[in-house]
Amino acid sequence: MNHRISRRGVIGLGVGAAAISAAGRTQMRSDGAGFAVVGLGKLAQGQIIPGFRNCRNARLTALVSGHADKANRIAAEQKLPPGSVYNYDNFDRIASDPRIDVVYIVLPNFMHAEYTVRALKAGKHVLCEKPMASTIADAEAMVAAAKAANRKLMIAYRCHYEPLNLEAMRRVRSGSLGKPRLVITKMVRQSDLSDPSDAWRLDMRESGGGALVDMGIYGINGARYLLNEEPLEVRATARTDRSDPRFKTVEDLVAWEFRFPSGAIAQGSSSFDAADEMAFEVVGQHKRLVADPGCFYSGNHLCLWQGGNRAEIPIHEIDQFAREMDWMANVVRGGAPMVSPGEEGLQDMRLMHAILESVGRGGATIDTNWGYRRAVDPAAAVA
Ligand code: NDP
Predict the structure, then answer these.
(1) What is the pLDDT of residue 272?
(2) Hey, which of 214, 226, 271, 272 would disulfide with 253, CB 3.0 to 4.6 Å?
(3) Whose CA is nearest to atom 20 of ligand 1?
């Protein structure tokens, strides 16, 4: 890790004396897992914290933030007891807070590694947002730290637990489309430099790669889980208007093509200057599956096309964040397999790096056949 964040104010008193456990290390309670959410930005406030309402086994027990007023307001709204709010300076005191089993990292990408490693050293399990880090070295350090601490590290790939994506995986696995030939993924949106949530995403050092790592990662991970295999090679190209102030350090439109061992090809694209879209399509020999949109928080649609006939596949919509947090709670309780471990995030980091390497080398073909195999197929593991 090559950064330290600046101090962003001192808040709260950290853990209250009543909560300090002599045991120090996490003891899992029978009533589920307690989560500390780190970084109270758009995703944490918009999806994650409200998502706990729909959880069965995950409970919000602490907040970590650089802004005392915001954190204390949210803690009060969530009826958290005194001593549930930490800041980035006293974060390590979570080690002696038995209410926290899992630390959910919802910070800008460049901060994921530092807080993941600190949480693991504090004896906690970690659920970390995608992309898992801003550099491969950081991602490797996170995987190593989880092993050293003998704690779980899960990457928050919500689509691994989401009914539409699981249904698509199962239909591809069943052979009902015929042999899958082509996967097409389009993960694009507009970005706004004046929005603080986008400003760091448009900074290479803080995001690690702009739209590719923010949006494109859904298509890269998606092609892999849809086909249930790993790409042999990739080539890519980019179109970036460097006079646009948003794209001083990151690429805008990136398009890539992966070749898989089965012969299938996956074409993907990502952009921060295009109409919002998170769609994928699997073209088999006889039928094709179209998910458009396929990866939004809600309102997704899955259709099966054969010739000119289109059949909508009904999907039961869920709170994707609640499902994912419950899964993590079950993993740490020993009741569910780890589906999206750190290694899975690291594979995407390496593939995104290969894409950018190809872009930098004028579209050269980059070997990605380094032997990674997914340990658990979400289609088989997640009901
Ligand atoms: P935001 O910028 O909205 O929030 C990040 C928060 O991190 C800030 O509000 C702030 O919280 C804290 N922070 C601490 N230091 C800094 C710093 N130096 N600069 C900026 N923020 C800082 O980001 P998002 O919530 O949109 O994204 C957070 C993570 O979640 C990213 O990794 C992103 O890729 C991922 N994400 C995943 C999604 C999914 O569907 N799985 C969707 C959206 C995002 P505080 O003031 O409390 O300290």
Answers:
(1) 98
(2) 271
(3) 108
Mean pLDDT of the chain: 93
**Ligand 1 neighbours by CB, cut-off 6 Å:** 5, 8, 39-44, 65-67, 70, 106-109, 111, 129-130, 156, 158, 196-197, 200, 214
Ligand 1 centroid to Cα of residue 197, in Å, is 7
- Show the beta-strand stretches assigned E in 285-382: 288-291, 302-306, 309-313, 366-367
Torsion of CA 164, 169, 173, 177, to 10 degrees: 60
Q: Is pLDDT above 50 for 144?
A: yes
Torsion over CA of 55, 59, 65 and 68, rounded to 10 degrees?
A: 110
Q: Cis before residue 293, ω within 30 degrees of 0? A: yes
Mean pLDDT in residue range 76-90: 97
Helix, strand, coil % (nearest 5) of the chain?
Answer: 35, 25, 40
Tokens of 104: 């959910």
